[in-house]
Amino acid sequence: MGAAALAAALLISEWGMRQARPDLLPSHQLRLVPDPDVGWRFAPNQRTQGRTEWGAPRRQRSNALGFSDADHSPNAAPGVRRVAFLGDSFTAAVGVDFEDSFVRTTERELARLPASPSWETLNFGLPSMGTVRERLVWKHDASRFRPDLVVLAFFLGNDVANNMPGYEKRMEFRKEAKSRSWFYRAFLEPSALYQQFKLVQRNLRHAWRTGVRRRAVSVEDAGKPFWQRSYAPLDWQGYLVRPEGAVLEGWKITEAEILALQTEVRASGGRFLVALIPGLEAMAPEKFREALKRYPGLEDFELDLDYPRRRLMGFLDRNRIPCVDLQGEFDAEENAAVRDRLYFKFDQHFSPVGHRIAGRALARALAAEGLEKRNRS
């Protein structure tokens, strides 16, 4: 086969794979840039178009401050209540259309409530943020808009890990270890055909590890705690039932940061609320148990997918911080077909369905918290 024929075959195969598997295309298109105040943010004033994992059109944007939102004036219009959302990639809604995010959905749902005042939602979500950096976003960005109510969207899947000492250095090391050439970034990374090849390769590797040649715990990892094993998923550390060491320190930092954020928001005259966002594994524990088989030795540790939710709810209750339990909202969904479509399968963030249900639950909670306009004098 000549070079021209091979190129044509690859182009046709790529086109066909994109039609059959839009989920394999990268979902995160807004470019991040370093920031001296909060660590990173989106490059300002971006506009992108693409497809969701389900193949639907997806438009994304960043405002002048580098958040996934429209621009907002410094002061709210008379009679309008402002709600600022702090969070990570779930809040930034990296995998769905800008208008489908739970932040935008919350604003629309609030407008539909009977006798509801006017509301304006502001999105300060950024990918990979933990509570420590979200508090910096409050200090340097969100507080300037003087919101009436601040929602900390806490992701139960990895926010505790994000707050652990040394977490970002470990992640940065892994990123540096996986630095890619310009050829990879320009041609392979955006290729659905190549992503399918990697998926098949990964599945074969997992089958080999968990099948005939299940990998044993290495000499280097034997005897080490969960958070020090070279292959242990960093984001699962919050599920440890008896946290110790760096994981326990991550929990202490998490709880201290929530209390500090509550104090600062209340000092500004605002109300504070925490929304608990469950990870996909918490909603599909059978898949989590299957995933555990890929990591030999981790079954020796006691993991509980509901541990971070129970711990946070108890902590918030003791400190009289209002809470929206989105996992409870999802569990209450009786339609099995809907529950199966709350998350994207590969992206593992909320789908438009998940964003819609979360936005409705948040609208009800915010209406109950913010019906009385406070004095801004």
List keywords for this structure.
377 residues; alpha/beta; Rossmann fold; five-stranded parallel β-sheet; two-stranded antiparallel ribbon; 42% helix; globular
What does this structure look like?
- The longest helix has 23 residues, at 245-267.
- It contains 15 helices and nine strands.
- The chain is globular and about 70 Å long.
- It has helices at 3-20, 89-92, 102-112, 131-140, 159-162, 167-177, 182-188, 192-210, 245-267, 280-283, 285-292, 307-318, 326-331, 336-339, 352-369; strands at 32-35, 39-42, 47-51, 57-61, 80-87, 118-125, 149-155, 271-277, 323-325.
- The chain has 377 residues and is of the alpha/beta class.
- The strands form three sheets. Strands 6-5-7-8-9 form a five-stranded parallel sheet, with helices on both faces.
- The chain has a single domain (70-369), classed as Rossmann fold (3-Layer(aba) Sandwich), CATH 3.40.50.1110.
- α3 (102-112) packs across α15 and α4 packs parallel to α9 (245-267).
